[in-house]
Amino acid sequence: MNQFRCYSKKSITVFFISVICLSAVAEYLICRYQYMWAYPVLMWMPAVSAMIASAVAVKESGEPFTLKKLFSNVGFHTCKIRYVLAGILLPLLYLLVPYMIYWKMYPENFAYSGVPLLLVLKDCLPVGIIGIFTGLLTATGEEIGWRGFLVPALREKVGVRKALLITGLFWCLWHFPLLIWGGYTEGLPLLYSLLAFALCIFPVGVICGLLALQSGSVWPCAFLHAAHNNYDRAVFGLITKGSDKMYYVSETGIFTIVCVWIIAIIMFIRFRKKETQK
Question: Which H helix or E strand runs over 148?
Answer without folding.
Answer: none
